Amino acid sequence: MPSYQLSNNDFPNLPTRIKGLGGLAENLWWSWNPQARTLFKMLDRQAWKESNHNPDLMLKQLSAGVLARATRDDNFLRHYDLVMYLFEKYLNERVLYPEFELQPDALPIAYFSAEYGLHHSLPFYAGGLGFLAGDHLKECSDLGIPMVAVGFMYPGGYLNQVINRDGWQENFTQKVDKDAASISRLLTDNGEQFCVRVPYINHTPVEVGVWKVSVGRVGLYLMDTDIVSNSDWVRAISQRLYTSNVTQRLLQEILLGIGGSRVLATLGHDFGMLHLNEGHAAFALLEKIREFVEQGADFAQARKQLAAMSLFTTHTPVPAGHDIFPFDLVEKYLEGYWPLLGLDREGFMELGRHPDNPEAGFNMTALALRLSGNVNAVSQKHGEVTRGMWHCMWPDKAEADVPIDYVTNGVHLPTWLEPKMRLLFNRYFGEGWINVHDNPAIWQFIEEIPDSELWQLHYWLKLKLVNYIRQKARDRWDTGEVDPSQIMGMGTLLDPSVLTLGFARRFATYKRADLIFHDLDRLKKIINDPWRPVQILFAGKSHPEDAKGHELIHRVFEFARDPQMGGRIAFVENYNEQLGQYMVHGVDAWLNNPVPPMEASGTSGMKAALNGVPHVSIPDGWWLEGYNKNNGWQFGSGRKGSDSGRDRDDAAQLYDLLEQEMIPLYYEAAEDGTPHSWVRYMKESIKSTAPHFSSRRMVKEYYRKFYAQVLERGSENCGG
Ligand SMILES: *Cc1c(COP(=O)(O)O)cnc(C)c1O
What we know:
This protein is α/β, with parallel strands linked by helices. The chain has 3 domains: 5-92, no CATH class; 109-159 and 169-409 and 700-711, Glycogen Phosphorylase B (Rossmann fold, 3-Layer(aba) Sandwich), CATH 3.40.50.2000; 413-693, Glycogen Phosphorylase B (Rossmann fold, 3-Layer(aba) Sandwich), CATH 3.40.50. Helix content is 42%, strand content 14%. Pyridoxal-5'-phosphate binds at residues 127-128, 131, 505, 575-577, 580, 602-605, 607.
């Protein structure tokens, strides 16, 4: 194994007494530990904010004076010593969960994903799939599950959204400053870029640079083709996430699967199981087969060996979510590869054919389903739907016996639970509750929190959200480049005392962002009620090439700035992790109304629910498992198809629900100013959601169903 060193790890400007801040900044553990975040904030609040909560950048920019002052500040040093103690303890405490019978020499799980949502200072994500991956890594780290992960650095940058004067989405990209983030460049011993050579592609090897992100105890390696030794076309491969250029996309997926495997092999990370988060990395399965063939197996034997050590998690019933590449394109780039697997052209293409539509092209989901020995969907319902969709792969089996299991998604509680909420729970749940937060018994203590205390905290979080949105609008106004109606549409007139619904998600048509506008007269009556008004916050981006999604945003934005809506509708620009945090903490209820059964699971509603923001949703995804009649609301016929009658009926049910249940509960007058019946829903929401829809519960299920096979067996038996 070639040796390498990590860049970024020394901060020569840090005084010895607080030298540990450097290591802390380089491990994302800080991002889900409020005490560590507070420590950075204590150093210099303004600089912390200006760095966009990026400790690496902030530490590099702080003046010697500020740092020297910190070394003389007893209060700061006390916090510093505590955080460093907790950090060291976290990194070194190997076995957190005795219920796992981990073999000490077990090989780690290798996790492959095209995107990771970890923190807003690391924009390598597009949406839900990325956050699921990020939360999965954090949880594996917390649980002490050995894991190594692979993904991409997208140097082209992150797509930011603004709404222009005409009410249309415009995108601008923001480059990632790779050398000022909580990531480290891998360098050779003489300080040059450490590269991994990826052979096979069109006979021309490609070099990728490698970055490391430390996610607690889990190492995540990001590949980057944008390095000086590469030609322009190679540099462009990893430019952008989910490009619609089919060649570029195929090359990305070859690099993610095959290149990612080469990176792990080069760095000496042998693994016991391959876990694919969605089909983008399915070529990693082939690369494992190639290794087995190289060691002397034939294709059939290699395939069998691979099956025992592979897990494919499929995420979407939406057809556009499944990549299909033209056969001749696959041939162009991979014709040198299939002989290494012991296959000819047809044998190779066969692996990617959809049984019902074999000429459509090389289907990455079909490839992943054929070669992975374990497959799971991401909710109970999604399991059912996926078995139906792919029954054709197992024509001899009854649909119910199609070997596709499910593990319902969950969210990383320390990341998504608002820190003040966490402090409140600390007071009532007893010491150490956070370590056993998937135990429903702990959450019964929610009953001991006085209604008024929970309500006041929620109200404060709503104020924070409204202030944040208005400040964003003010910043735009200050540029002098927007007109008043635009600013009105962005939330200037929001009122924190009003019942507030939140709707934040990608603007894909099946999510029906405009459902609530179906009957405008009825909606206007509801939101403009002088005594009991309602306001609705929208946020979300549309894929740059999704014209329908753009129209949907336009439609919602035009409503938001329509004076007849009274400023009660707002569209907030640039939905990202940070805005997402504010919204799931601060709105009163979380609205979800996709066309069933298109939402495989959904996770934003879980984030909201565990913060006391009840879910109001049609029956789909995780809500089919989460709803218990007391912890939120359900509406809609559950009807599929696309008839406008369905939208009309679903919208009517939503209006009924608002008028007859939610509004009266929220505005219920009480002498102490606390709407006790509403708080009842908040408490039920927290206590039913937090333990079950946490990534703690989710990862333990992955462990029991899949990972344990290899992790409890020791390395000599792994992978055959
Ligand atoms: C959680 C999250 C998502 C995914 O939520 P869905 O409910 O699956 O739409 C997308 N974007 C951000 C910023 C998130 O935090």
